[in-house]
Amino acid sequence: MHDRWWRWGPAAAVVCFAAAAVSALVGYLRLSLEPSVARQIPYLASAGMAVIVLSAAGTALLVASRAAARTAELGELAEAVEHLAAALAATVERPARRSAAPNPAAAAPDDPDPGEPSDQRNS
Asked: Which domain range does residue 29 map to?
């Protein structure tokens, strides 16, 4: 469902925007041909409302299709993270390796560095 919506949503939005432009053009032409202001009002109202409704529908389709695409991307990302977590679970949960003999160089020395001043040795 999301795949189809993501593909056709922007195309439907463009159709709505094109219909709004045609409606605005037809409304303008009908308005400009009518000399009486009283007779212009119905054309203004109907064309204006058509432009507003079609533009709002196009915007809603565009936003909804982009949201559907993002939802699909987030679903794929969540699936990839779960796959990675499952693959690394055995490694992460395994205890750390211990060597047979401790490394004496890695242990901290018992006496401080003889090059340090004496007041830092006691602290």
From this structure: 2-92
End-to-end CA distance of the chain: give it in Å, rounded: 69
> How many independent structural domains does the chain possess?
1
Per-residue tokens: 4: 């189809």
Would you say residue 121 lies in a domain?
no
Residue-by-residue DSSP string for 22-72: HHHHHHHHHHHH---HHHHHHHHHHHHHHHHHHHHHHHHHHHHHHHHHHHH
pLDDT at 2: 52
In a domain, 54, yes or no: yes
Q: Is the pTM of this model over 0.90?
A: no
Amino acid at 67: A
Low-confidence ranges of the chain (pLDDT < 50): none
107 is a domain residue: no
pLDDT in the model for residue 61: 92
